[in-house]
Amino acid sequence: MAEIERFDRVVGQDGISRIHQEDFCQALGRLPEAKYESRGGPRLTDMVGLVRRQSTMPADDLLALADFAIVNLVAGAPDGHSKNISLLLAPDGNRWVAPLYDLATGLAYDGATVDRRVALSIGGERIVGQIRRKQWDKAAALLGLPADRLVDRVRTLAGQYPDAFEKALSAVADVPGAEEVAARTVPELRRHCLSLLQRLREG
């Protein structure tokens, strides 16, 4: 297994230093119970406002917010709430969005028993089957990004994600349960991504 390096630690001459991290729920002054938008938690507009106010690299971090929304939709990850994205606050005053973490697909489970919604609405919509080009256009306007650029990122990830997911699973094929996860998830993930691409074409 590959070694995982922490993104909130820096190794220097004086040893290991910690980079302070605040998730968006915490940074926006919400209680942990309000981490979900559906329970009164932060919306994308709140996150954009936080980045604009606090980030020292806002252009990169607005793209990071876009990617957070995109990957949770494409991966079929229903748990992309405001505690699963963070700001890093360095001692020198720099602040930026941390690498994305805790991304897990829900597509391995029976669709009849899993809520097929995203935690963070896209263009005002959380139901996966209702997210089309016009919702991404609204999200792009909120993020201050060209709509075509944002949609291209969605299209690229949706086109490449199933193969990348299958490849990642093959790298851990000797782990108990990996084969079962692949069998249950990969076909559903391919259908899911094809459906996303179709809805983008529909407008």
What does this structure look like?
The chain has 203 residues and is an alpha+beta fold. The chain has a single domain, classed as Phosphatidylinositol 3-kinase Catalytic Subunit, Chain A, Domain 5. The protein has six helices and seven strands; from the N terminus they run βββαααββββααα. The chain has helices spanning 24-27, 44-54, 58-74, 133-143, 147-171, 178-202; strands at residues 9-12, 15-18, 20-23, 86-89, 95-97, 117-122, 125-127. Strands 3-4-5 form a three-stranded antiparallel beta sheet. A hairpin with a 2-residue loop joins strand 6 and strand 7 (125-127). Helix 3 packs across helix 5. It is globular, with a radius of gyration of 18 Å. Pfam families: HipA_C.
Key descriptive features of the protein:
single chain, 203 residues, alpha+beta, Phosphatidylinositol 3-kinase Catalytic Subunit, Chain A, Domain 5, two-stranded antiparallel sheet, globular, protein serine/threonine kinase activity, HipA-like protein, HipA-like_C, HipA_Ser/Thr_kinase
Question: Structural class, from secondary structure content?
Answer: alpha+beta
Distance between the termini: 42 Å
The proportion of strand residues reads 5-15%
Within the CATH hierarchy, at the fold level, what is the topology? Answer: Phosphatidylinositol 3-kinase Catalytic Subunit, Chain A, Domain 5
What's the Cα radius of gyration?
Answer: 18 Å
The residue fraction in helices comes out at 40-55%
Largest sheet: 3 strands, antiparallel
CATH class: Mainly Alpha
Low-confidence stretches: none
How is the largest sheet built, in terms of strand order?
3-4-5
Global mean pLDDT: 91
> How many DSSP H or I helices?
6
Order of helices and strands: EEEHHHEEEEHHH
In one word, what is the shape? Answer: globular
Domain HipA-like C-terminal: 4-162
Protein name: HipA-like protein
Family: Belongs to the HipA Ser/Thr kinase family.
GO molecular function: protein serine/threonine kinase activity
